[in-house]
């Protein structure tokens, strides 16, 4: 699943993606450019180790890891939980928790309806 989100984790669009190589058409041709690597990688305390930080720096990424032993509430969750919150909102719809539909177009239609309902509920709260 591919989500396009705005600020505060509100989903703008969603679509089902079968696999990573779905962008390829024909041998060796891609329809879209390769996405660039992120500048920073956010991780939780489980990955707080010099080995992982060194590997990330070698690849050109800046590790932003919650340190072990530091008190909770360092502010890292403000950025990390946006995507998880969006997926949790989509999982509020029983039909999307486990994919039962075999056809992609039906699954994408259900995702689209869920995004519309989530947006509608948000607009109702604002009014």
TrEMBL record:
<protein>
    <submittedName>
        <fullName>Transposase</fullName>
    </submittedName>
</protein>
<feature type="region of interest" description="Disordered">
    <location>
        <begin position="1"/>
        <end position="43"/>
    </location>
</feature>
<dbReference type="InterPro" id="IPR002559">
    <property type="entry name" value="Transposase_11"/>
</dbReference>
<dbReference type="Pfam" id="PF01609">
    <property type="entry name" value="DDE_Tnp_1"/>
</dbReference>
<feature type="domain" description="Transposase IS4-like">
    <location>
        <begin position="25"/>
        <end position="117"/>
    </location>
</feature>
